[in-house]
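FAQ
Q: What does a multi-component entry look like?
A: The components come first, one per line:
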Amino acid sequence: MTSPAFSFEGSPMARYIPAEIEPKWQAAWQEAEIFRAERDPERPKYYVLEMFPYPSGRLHIGHVRNYTLGDVVARYKAAQGFAVLHPMGWDAFGLPAENAAMATGVHPADHTYGNIAEMKEQMAPMGWSHDWSREFATCDPEYYGQQQAMFLDFLEKGLVYRKSAMVNWDPVDMTVLANEQVIDGRGWRSGAEVERRELTQWFFRISDYAEDLLAALDGLENWPEKVRLMQANWIGKSRGIELYFQRRDGAGEIVCYSTRPDTMRGASFLAIAPDHPVARELAEKDPALAAFIAECRKGGTSEEAIEKAEKLGHDTGLRVAHPLDPARDLPVWVANFVLMDYGTGAVFGCPAHDQRDLDFARKYGLPVQNAFYMPGESVEVENEALVPAKSERVVYIDHFTGLAEATGEEGINAAIDWFEARGLGKGKVQYRLRDWGISRQRFWGCPIPVVHCESCGVVPEKKENLPVELPRDVTFDQPGNPLDRHPTWRDVPCPSCGKPARRETDTMDTFVDSSWYYARFTAPNAATPTSAEDVDYWMNVDQYVGGIEHAILHLLYSRFFARAMHECGHLPAKSVEPFDALFTQGMVTHAIYMSEGEDGRPVYHYPAEVELRDGRAFLRESGNEVQVIPSAKMSKSKNNVVDPVRIVERYGADTARWFVLSDSPPERDVEWTAAGAEAAHKHLGRVWSLSERIAGMEGQGSGDEDLLRAMHKTIHDVTMAIESFGFNAAIARLYAFTNSLQKSKAGADTQRQAIRVLAQLMAPFTPHLAEEIWARQGGEGLVARAPWPEADPALLVEDTVTLPIQINGKRRSEITVARDLPREEVEKRALADQAVQRALDGRAPKKLIVVPGRIVNVVI
RNA sequence: GCCCAAGUGGCGGAAUGGUAGACGCAGGGGAUUCAAAAUCCCCCGCCUUUACGGGCGUGUGGGUUCGACUCCCACCUUGGGCACCA
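Then the predicted structure of the entire assembly, as tokens:
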């Protein structure tokens, strides 16, 4: 069949040139304002949100993945008839702008707004369906002013308070450091050993919501299981007991929190935090202890730093009575691994059943005594602690409750009852979750709107004076927060008594900014933080998309903030869980090409300098082979960053979008490869040629029904795949259908129908190419506005099925039978099969399993 | 150190407990071409066999099941988070 309609040669086909297609359709969308979200009581709404970017100034390929994922959902939902809200804005406060100010002297605001302008320019060619009319940056005074208003509401409701807490202190630069700025225990600029220093700071009472935040996780059915689990572990609910240990010096008691009171027999010491009041009290008269406590303050505040630090202890000389045997003494040690923030800041050490306690006991020569054995093994612990799961049965040794063999859980419960009955302790539910410290000793953040007055104390700023705006006239020529040394900004009259007072110069954690932006998008210009009408209509976020690295902090803070906003009347009750569905995507990675330099240090090569042959990499210039490290996180210093702007210039946005979605499931990391991008581009070119060929076709053909069946199957499969975020699978189905269409001999009308459906199904992924094909094939209006195609169920079922036949679970043959063939017939046909006959060798099968429509298994 | 996740051909990956390897890349063969590019067609897990076929195979070791990539237990490796990076 070589009619002209099928010939590539000689037909006046246009080539696929994205640079001609893409800007045209972007202009058409803008002209029609199809992405502008409007409240529409006639239609159901759909709010899809991607985590907004920090304006670094460079669009990263990770952004491309994130926003393309959201864009597919937004465009798909729009095609299904929803009123879609798909906003975009900027998480604009933060350290990098201050670092830039220190390096170049440019004001953080200028730096940030400059970056925003640059990034917007880089985002425009991607063809994302964002509603830019709702754009804002968290550093806009209009935004952070509303945040300050909410801070004052929280203050009034008692959701905010001040207390002392530790920060990283650089003793040379005389400044507070972020954890990121502490490298191996030293300040990143000064190189000085960092110490922990106490500062009075503002806190949100998130721990009051620990139980609610934990319990409500069950209702978040459309969140990834692992995120819920991570949050549950982070909140860390545990049931235990507060135990009272009487001091031998008669000065009262030390209260320890324990989740394993059943192991009390093995207690050999008490360990208290260096900041514990008892430690401080004893240090006043004990210079050696004071020196030890000072030593414990070395290093950063991060939990990782504390946990990994060498376990150090100091015997205070104080003794307490062992609760089980008042004649027995337990020594009280100060230990650097005990955290004042958790429990009571004091624990009893049971070396036999806790590895850390055991290491500590061996180091300092403290006794090790088992509280239980595993059943049948009466072995004393040596160098490995015996720590079975609480559900496992153990044999308690001479237990104070009278228990013999029991599970850990039973032992714990019995021990709690026993101690409570004797007034030695009190059962207590404990959470690991700490209150959220929001004070930052930095300039580029939302100012905390309070004033410190000598006579009135801490006085909230009046709401009519908001926003408390950051000043323009600041310099960054010395370390620290310039607000601290800005007299005219800092010195203000007290809002209450009018006497001279000082503004709070700390600003808020940037996580505060990102804890409510989703609500602000529903009414970005409202005179109050939110507007009731708009949050009622648009909230909740139906689909939230972002990086897995935000699984805990950002999402937990947002959940808390929504609850707090509800209490202050800024969100309805339905929005205390603001994100109905969450999707966490993986990273985009890229291989690193590395060789060894003359000095032995690694040299990183740009992909452009490298030629790939048979999976090995060689330098183009010298021909020397270089080492390939696959799937590495993109990093400027490793020269493996892929610039999406260059990709779009070379291949067009549709190729970039198609590729980042096609190669890996979205939740997993995807490796960017030049070959993959090339292949994606080629495929789009094939679809284009196919469309051009079909456009020129006329007349009848054969196999129309086969093509229609394939088309409806594809509609069904692609729709299901999009619904479940299986975008790579959706794209695989689109590849397969393209191949079927290419090979089809069906008539012109059917083929035209098929290519139009293909364009519709591709539209969420490659919207520009889809529009072009849609227009050329006589589609009505914009494909972005065409209703999503529906699969005809009648065309999805086949009359016959092919059943694999297994023998002992291994596939050995297959039979093709009518779909509704009765089971007995299937059995008969399966047993008659040659392979089965051969395997049976005259014997009768032990068992015959027929799963209708799926499989036959013959057990011999 | 603690919490979480992921490991499937040369590579990225597919697979409601039911034919492991869909789809794509790389590779091999062919067509077209004066030649190349582009395009099109076919093959492509490993071992064994002339062939038909047979054996092995989803990080490792166990277990549940007629049947396990999928469920359970232990381990190994890699990645994410650890409260002041965003």
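Q: Is there any commentary attached?
A: Sometimes. For this entry: Chain A has 26 helices and 36 strands.
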